Amino acid sequence: MHNRCMIDPRLITLRVFGRCGTIGATAELTGYSPSAVSAQLRELQRVLGMQLLTKDGRGVRLTATGRFLVAGSDPLIAQWESLRAAAMAAGDQVQSHFGLGGFSSAAAQLLAPLAATLRSTHPLLEVQVLEADPARCFDLLIAERIDLAVIVAMQSDSYGEDDPRFEQRVLLDDPLDVIIPGDHPLASRETATLEELASEPWITEAAGSTYHSLFTAAFTAVGVTPRIAHEAVEWETHIAFVGAGLGVGLLPRLAPLHGAENVVRLRITGRTRPTRRIVAAVRRGSIASPLIQESLNILQVNANRILTERLEEEDL
Amino acid sequence: MHNRCMIDPRLITLRVFGRCGTIGATAELTGYSPSAVSAQLRELQRVLGMQLLTKDGRGVRLTATGRFLVAGSDPLIAQWESLRAAAMAAGDQVQSHFGLGGFSSAAAQLLAPLAATLRSTHPLLEVQVLEADPARCFDLLIAERIDLAVIVAMQSDSYGEDDPRFEQRVLLDDPLDVIIPGDHPLASRETATLEELASEPWITEAAGSTYHSLFTAAFTAVGVTPRIAHEAVEWETHIAFVGAGLGVGLLPRLAPLHGAENVVRLRITGRTRPTRRIVAAVRRGSIASPLIQESLNILQVNANRILTERLEEEDL
DNA sequence: ATCGATCATGCACCTATTGTGCATGGTTAT
DNA sequence: ATAACCATGCACAATAGGTGCATGATCGAT
Predict the structure, then answer these.
(1) Which residue has the higher pLDDT, B36 or B162?
(2) How confident is the model at residue B316 (pLDDT cuts 50, 70, 90)?
(3) Which chain A residue's Cα is nearest to B53?
(4) Which of A173, A250, B91, B275 is within CB 3.0–4.6 Å of B173 for a Cys-Cys bond?
(5) Is B114 within 7 A of strand C by CB distance?
(6) Rounded to 5 degrees, what are φ and ψ at A139?
(7) A172-277 CATH fold
(8) Residues of chain A with pLDDT under 70
(9) Using the beta-carbon criterion (under 8 Å), do B93 and A51 form an inter-chain contact?
(10) What is the CATH number of domain A1-93?
């Protein structure tokens, strides 16, 4: 649990606190107890001779100095990651621990094979996979719990493409299919357009969730406002709802149907073909690390394999 | 003893090892025991998954990866120092520990007043002064045992003016006087030239010492080769030798005669007036720190005071 | 060759840093 | 007013990290 190193772990903790703003959340994210986080930050202030935190209501918040330190530590972390990566590459060596993070369908389709491959090619490397949603993946990267995350890119998120803390690389654009009940008028079709389905009752995630913004973006692009009938979190649930005839929904191509009863998957055609962009994210500077490079290659190969399999599928 | 922070202390230890090449010397310099240094470096290799050391005869030496890491850590350290300095300045705060280093006459004339001033202006700052020769001062800076050093600049040394690990600032040029026995024919003079004293038996430090290079440089500048009769380490000893009539010697203006018997101090005039340049050195990046800035100002004020007192003296 | 010096390292042991779990006190929302 | 939440202090436990000494390996000098 304590594989952080080189940069004082208490500074890492401070950075995490800088993100989530409360001791409790910091503890949850870092894997420490709240008392430990509190003690760490107190000790950090003592050793640096800086006041970093102030009481604020029932919580605490960063002082100006604290915010300054958090922001200024970005290049420091990046520099270290970069140095480590270069040293690894120069010495043709590989670290002993490697943390991966990703959301469910990516974890199943991309992360699992990656972990398996790494496990066989580097027998004495302990690979750890954490399933987490994209936002949490970024937090886990900051907390140095994981070293590489596979996530869906989100424009609406607080982590921009050019965040100084991360480097990102597109792996694949995963199209969204539409799933409809088997007894739906369009069920015998192969493809459909969003316009054709505009008046259907839709099943989506709760507002603010990972895919909701993708959902709304897709429909605003075609200029219609879908009627949201039901909300579900897991794809399993989406599928079940559709199977029960409650409505229609979007399902990423990567998410398998598992031969669900009474559910048909249709490709979306027409002007707007919504996709989710799946990217790999690492801490800035670490991208040159041999292990990261190897992982990215494996991911890319898998992503390409998936894409070509789809093409062959379509050729049938 | 363990005020190092933020950058993993084991990396600091590795850097020190990179300089002195042996575990024992590293231990001496860092203040750890040899076992501790050995264990630290072993642990560092484990946690980084890199092989940094190799057996070499009865000792160990850095691998290519190790050297790479040591060299590459320079900017990392500088970046941290810079960040800390900026945060300190931004928050108008001051660290809790401050280490000073310097050689004897600088320690007496410049460092002691500095420490006294800091002690009074920052009552809860613990100031530590280490007397050490210039080369060791640089090592102590690397080892993070001290934060600021007052040293004589040496062109022949392995630490150049532009070393990426340090920043240096000239405090004052301290002229070298000549000291001769009271019964010497020139004893009644106020000044002398090096040429006039070329044939005297000279007292100097051992070859390779801090001042020996200064000594030879002065005489090569005037084109004569002095006869070195005796060697002494401490100025006290130099003075005693001269007082005993064993020869003549050079003595920095900053080093006091303490009313020694039978010794006269003469200013050196003529084409070549040897001086030793006294500079302050800090770890790169830390120069913006408020405490460092304040210290440098105090040092500069003291240096200027010394210079003006000399001018007034000469006016008499 | 032999002996002594020099180095690094392993081991037993000790210390103090740093973690957890629980209780407490202050602060906000219902 | 009461409940929920948040940070923190304290007793206690684990463990990282230190010292000192003994050991083994290598080199230089006699």
Answers:
(1) B36
(2) low
(3) A91
(4) B275
(5) no
(6) -60, -40
(7) D-Maltodextrin-Binding Protein; domain 2 (3.40.190)
(8) 1-4, 154-159, 208-210, 314-316
(9) yes
(10) 1.10.10.10
Which residues does A178 contact at the CB level (< 8 Å), separation at least 6? A192, A194, A197, A248, A249, A250, A251, A265, A266, A268
Question: pLDDT at position A108, please?
Answer: 75
Q: Gap from A63 CA to C28 C1', in Å?
A: 22
Distance B49 CA to D18 C1' (A): 23
| pLDDT of amino acid B245 | 87
Through-space separation of residue B58 CA and nucleotide C4 C1' in angstroms: 15
Question: What is the C-alpha separation between A151 and A172, in angstroms, rounded?
Answer: 11
Residue A193's SS3 state is strand
Candidate from A50, A73, A87 with C-beta closest to B69: A87
3-state DSSP call for residue A48?
helix
B66 CA from D10 C1′ (Å): 44
Q: Which of B154, B161, B162, B102 is nearest to B302 (CA)?
A: B102
| Residue B134 confidence (pLDDT) | 86
Chain A residue at shortest CA distance from B96: A49
B-interface mutation test, from A79, A147, A291, most B Cβ less than 10 A away: A79
CB proximity A223–strand D (7 Å threshold): no
Q: Is the pLDDT of residue B310 over 80?
A: no
User: Tens digit of pLDDT for each residue in B125-158?
Assistant: 888 888 888 888 999 999 999 999 998 886 545 5
Report chain D positions within 7 A of protein CB atoms.
Answer: 4-11, 16-21, 24-27
pLDDT recorded at residue A157: 56
Domain range summary for chain A, segments of one domain joined by +: 1-93, 172-277
Radius of gyration of chain B from Cα atoms? Answer: 22
Closest by CA to A292, choosing from A170, A149, A180, is A149
Is A36's CB less than 7 Å from nucleic acid strand C? yes
Residue B147 to chain A, least CA–CA distance (Å): 14
CA angle in degrees (0–180, nearest 5) for A196-A202-A207: 130
Task: Give tens-digit pLDDT for B182-198.
Answer: 999 999 998 999 888 98
> What's phi and psi for B62, nearest 5 deg?
-70, 145
Q: State residue B288's pLDDT score.
A: 94
Which protein residue has its CA closest to C1' of D18? B36
CA–CA dist B167, A239 (Å, integer): 65
pLDDT per residue over A286-298, tens digit each? 999 999 999 999 9
Q: May I ask the CATH class of domain B173-276?
A: alpha beta
Chain B residues in contact with A87 (beta carbon < 8 A): 48, 50, 65, 68-69, 72
Q: Which residues in chain A have Cβ-Cβ distances shorter than 8 Å to B72?
A: 83, 86-87
Residue-wise pLDDT tens digits, A113-153: 999 999 999 988 888 888 888 888 999 999 999 999 998 88
Return the pLDDT at B4.
65
Q: What 8-state DSSP symbol labels residue A84?
A: H
Give the nearest nucleotide to B21, CA to C1'. C7
Write out pLDDT tens, residues B292-303.
Answer: 999 999 999 999
